[in-house]
User: What shape does this take?
Amino acid sequence: MTDAGTPGAGSRLGWRALALVLAVAAAVCLVMWGSSDRGSTSDPSETSGEQTSPGTGTPAVVAAVVAPTTPPVRPAVRPLALRIPAIGVAAHVVRLGQHQDGTVEVPGNPAEAGWFRLGPPPGTAGTSVILGHVDSMSGPAVFYRLKELAPGDLIAVRLDDGITVRFRVHSVRTYANADFPATKVYGGQGRSQLNLVTCGGAYDASRGGYQSNVVVNSRRTG
Assistant: This one.
């Protein structure tokens, strides 16, 4: 994926996001047991994520597989830290990539959030996505209180160029895994938006984990 600031990147994001993330939000929630030693297309220097089943710490893979893509061009900036004062979040942001089998990564550390780096960085045109766990074997994780956010709440993302971009929450919605609107969450174009994604709904181990996703849509302000 090219930088969203590059001419033509917005149109490429739309179709590539659809190919990448038909079930990418389920990277945090909708999982099935699998091998932990599968290869990755991600440059190790570009990512700190892994695939785990929240609440178990067990390696897992996304239930739906998406097509591999060519490596993205390194963006001009990347997010380093996330702050959400209303719910007490102050977290480091790692970069998340995509495995060779088409599955996507989630943060390996439940205290960290992860930016899906095949989309635009926060603050540029288009929709950026940051994922995080809701819980872990040791208790609440970084996005445990995400569903408590309300329209008007502020989100701040510090970038590696020293600039902090700010977003205001527009909506907070919970989607059943089967009804997750991937193209809307990951493929938005035009205005600068940030979507935060975590698990929600009931936890059913026999069905792969959490059965829903919480999505917070926010729009750049200032």
In short: The CA atoms of residues 81 and 92 lie 5 Å apart. The domain at 9-221 is CATH 2.40.260.10 (Sortase; Chain: A;). The radius of gyration is 16 Å. The longest strand covers residues 164-176.
